[in-house]
Specification:
The complex is a heterodimer of chains A (513) and B (240). Chain A is an all-alpha fold and 513 residues long. Chain A has one domain. Chain A contains 19 helices and four strands. In chain A, the strands form two sheets. Chain A has a two-stranded antiparallel ribbon. A two-stranded antiparallel sheet of chain A has the order 3-4. In chain A, a hairpin with a 2-residue loop joins strand 1 and strand 2. The two termini of chain A are 17 Å apart. Chain B has a six-stranded mixed β-sheet with strand order 6-7-8-3-9-10, sandwiched between helices. In chain B, strands 2-1-4-5 form a four-stranded antiparallel β-sheet, with helices on one face. By secondary structure, chain B is α/β, with parallel strands linked by helices. Chain B has a domain of 166 residues: 3-Layer(aba) Sandwich (Rossmann fold). In chain B, 35% of the residues lie in helices and 28% in strands. In chain B, strand 1 and strand 2 form a beta hairpin. Chain B starts with 8 loop residues before the first strand and ends with a helix. The chains are: A mainly alpha (513), B alpha/beta (240). Chains A and B meet through helix 15 of A and helix 2 of B.
């Protein structure tokens, strides 16, 4: 059997390229170059959201509409680590201890099995513990000391701190005060909250005929969380100072890693606690992810406030002194120029060169994961028939969790990387979720290369429309110069999607079946 | 069931009732599988043979009765836990993974690293075609080759029980002959439960039979006796 070549798809892509070339004829070469690079940049960020979406939908059949919110949360967490390391260091032990209770899941299952009550009474007891954990949370959490920005005090607000960090000034926020109980007590109290909650949930979900063991290896995660949390709290001040005085390149990398880890953690939490019970009810999943997305947005609004700000660019990409703008690649490395001159135009190094390169790197890494590893093989097989994969003896549910977490992590990575150029706002998630959905419809919903192609096309068409909004398109045979208004920009990608879908209902690279 | 040469029971299915969503598919299925034998599940289309195999794998909802594998209860386990007890499943319609190469289709069945390499020789001797097409995609194979691949996949780990569903479906008579040989070969290493509409296949291979009708096991016995009982064959299977 020969491989079928999708001629219609190739023709459509060719038509798109011809359209861009024709569109570019009315522009100066440097405008064309910069517009194209910006298209690549937006495409790259869109791809990070879309790739996760596509992986999750392909394997789990879940449309994760919270993907946009995860993207946004990635950006805000990255901002916190980068601009307010003190807040980050304060809150980390708390998060670790709140996780520690759930890391003991095996112990709770074991205890739930040992309690001699009938299933109904176990369920009731479980709910009693859940309520108890809420009471504990109300008592303990407000007493945990965190040094944090204040939304209603301009001098202490995220915008001011962003601005100061951009100037290289890192004033500490007003230090955290202990409130009634020592910090360590509040910290271990927070472990109690999560332990009581996890035990309650174990009782509610209790099933008979399970084998339980308390093997020492199962305690490892719990041990690591508790030790790490205690150490971070004990060495709070030196750690904070170390981060505050750190080279911003390295700090940005740390911020990105923490953002991705948070995305992965949130994704895993979402999948195991909320998505898993709904696998047989797709509409509920849709409502759930949409709802979680909205809740996430409101939380971000409540914690970081409405006004928009940015993550300042790390040192590597902010130079403007002598030798800048760079004329050669070497200049970029020696003077850390923020811009480079290409074809007489100023190209922003981070926004228009680094972001697309990162997009390509992630594209290749995920592709290697899919094609060259056992886990990738299981994912590709599971996309077709997850029951059969499971019947081969593979715990496919765990792979589901992993892929969901990975998808969420990719979105968070997109968020933190785009924050220095596109900024942080409560609506940033919605915008890129829409971009990603359109990109996937164009490229083919479950096709990974399709996600990349669609994202690139969406990025390019948006940037060309923005450029034409500035210079206008002369309409042939008339004197009219048409200037697309900002409202046309999202409409133009929708139009592209409609055209592609009318001709190829499965998208450019989607399956025909 | 009369046990002639086989004495040890590897699988006991006792009065299971299974549901697919709210449809009550199996109403009462009971049978034993002696170790080292081939047991054929017979019955008309829609009688519940495939659902019986899926019930053993726990791919459908088994609400009553119990299934014991080597004396241990396996219903209520997840399908992967059932498989990890060394039970291999070859579903109908082959279920070859189309995005995976032949090699990957085999490797994915490894339960521990090196399973495939240990069996490589044996598998390629049994299925020389697979060696030839090792880098093709699963779905680029012919129907017969795909079936061989689906069976080979179940041979990668050391399975002690194989559930094979409709292996001869849609295959040419010559290929079916090869298939019968292959199944006879692998039955020397593993116990087999075989479902096949083609009575020629089951009658040649099976030691015992179980007839399933409208979700109930109605007759059990030794295959050699059934072959001569034309009235029974006519009554339950509609073939003579």
């Amino acid at each position: 059997m020969k491989k079928k070549i999708n001629i219609t798809g190739i023709l459509l892509i060719a038509a798109f390229i011809v359209f861009l070339v024709l569109a570019g004829r009315g522009m100066e070469p440097r405008d064309l170059l910069i517009t194209t690079l910006r298209g690549f940049s937006v495409g790259s960020v869109t791809f990070l959201v879309a790739a996760g979406f596509s992986l999750i939908f392909g394997l789990l059949d879940v449309l994760n509409l919270a993907q946009g919110t995860l993207y946004m949360i990635g950006a805000y967490i990255g901002w916190t680590v980068f601009v307010r390391p003190d807040t980050f260091i304060d809150i980390t032990p708390l998060i670790l201890f709140l996780m520690a209770g759930f890391a003991l899941g095996f112990l709770w299952d074991y205890l739930a099995d040992k309690i001699t009550l009938d299933a109904r009474k176990k369920k009731i007891l479980g709910w009693v513990f859940v309520v108890l954990s809420v009471v504990l949370a109300v008592l303990i959490l407000p007493r945990y000391p965190i040094a944090m920005w204040e939304l209603d005090n301009y001098a202490q607000s995220p915008i001011s701190f962003s601005y100061m960090a951009d100037q290289g000034i890192r004033l500490p926020v007003s230090p955290a005060e202990t409130k009634g109980i020592p910090a360590m007590v509040a910290l271990y109290g927070s472990f109690l909250i999560s332990a009581v909650l996890a035990f309650g949930l174990a009782l509610i979900r209790y099933k008979e005929n399970r084998q339980h063991s308390l093997h020492w290896k199962k305690w490892r995660v719990f041990g690591i969380l508790i030790i790490l949390g205690t150490l971070i709290m004990a060495f709070n001040t030196p750690l904070t100072e170390w981060l505050m005085n750190m080279n911003t390149n390295l700090l940005f990398v740390i911020a990105a890693i923490i953002a991705v880890l948070s995305g992965i953690g949130l994704g895993a939490l979402m999948e195991t606690t909320m998505i898993q019970p709904l696998y047989s009810r797709p509409v509920y999943q849709l409502m759930l992810t949409l709802g979680l997305g909205t809740i996430g947005m409101q939380l971000v609004k409540a914690i970081w406030g409405m006004p928009e700000f940015v993550i300042p660019k790390p040192e590597m990409f902010r130079g403007s002194g002598p030798g800048c703008p760079a004329t050669t690649v070497k200049d970029v490395f020696t003077h850390h120029c923020s811009t480079i001159m290409i074809l007489g135009g100023r190209v922003r190094v981070y926004d228009e060169i680094v972001l697309p390169i990162v997009g390509v790197i992630i594209l290749v890494l995920v592709w290697l994961l899919l094609k060259k590893t056992r886990i990738g093989m299981i994912i590709r097989a599971g996309v077709q028939d997850s029951n059969m994969v499971e019947a081969l003896g593979i715990n496919v549910r765990r792979v589901f969790t992993l892929v969901f977490a990975l998808g969420a992590g990719l979105a968070a990575l997109g968020g933190v990387l785009s924050a220095p150029s596109y900024g942080l706002s409560v609506s940033m998630g919605e915008k890129f979720l829409l971009n990603a959905l359109i990109a996937l419809a164009i490229g083919g919903l479950t096709s990974y290369p399709g996600a990349a192609l669609g994202s690139l096309m969406v990025g390019l068409i948006q940037q060309f429309m923005i450029k034409y909004g500035q210079i206008g398109i002369p309409i042939p045979f008339t004197d009219i110069i048409f200037k697309p208004t900002p409202a046309i920009i999202p409409a133009s990608t929708m139009l592209l999607m409609v055209i592609v879908l009318l001709i190829l209902p499965n998208g450019l690279l989607g399956r025909q079946d | 069931m009369k046990l002639t040469s086989h004495s040890e029971i590897i699988l006991e299915v006792q009065g299971i009732q299974s549901y697919i969503t709210h449809y009550h598919i199996l109403e009462n299925v009971t049978f034993d599988v002696p170790k080292g034998s081939i047991v054929a599940l017979l019955g008309r289309n829609g009688a519940g043979k495939t659902t019986t195999l899926k019930s053993i794998m726990n791919l459908v909802d088994v609400r009553e009765g119990q299934i014991l594998f080597e004396g241990q209860q396996i219903q209520g386990l997840t399908p992967y836990e059932v498989a990890q007890r060394d039970i291999g499943y070859v579903p109908e319609h082959r279920a070859i993974f189309r995005d995976l190469s032949v090699l990957e289709n085999l490797r994915i069945a490894e339960r521990k690293k090196g399973d495939f390499d240990a069996k490589r020789e044996m598998i390629f001797e049994l299925f020389p075609d697979l060696k030839k097409f090792i880098n093709l995609r699963g779905t680029e194979l012919s129907g017969g080759q795909q079936q061989m691949l689906a069976i080979a996949r179940a041979l990668v780990p050391e399975n002690r029980l194989l559930l094979i569903d409709e292996p001869s479906e849609g295959l040419a008579p010559v290929i079916i002959e090869q298939l019968i040989e292959v199944i006879a070969q692998l039955a020397k290493q593993s116990t087999v439960i075989l479902v096949d509409q083609n009575f020629l296949v089951t009658s040649k291979l099976a030691d015992y039979y179980v007839i399933i009708e409208e979700g109930k096991s109605v007759e059990r016995g030794v295959m050699a006796e059934l072959i001569n009982d034309h009235a029974k064959i006519q009554r339950y299977l509609g073939v003579a």
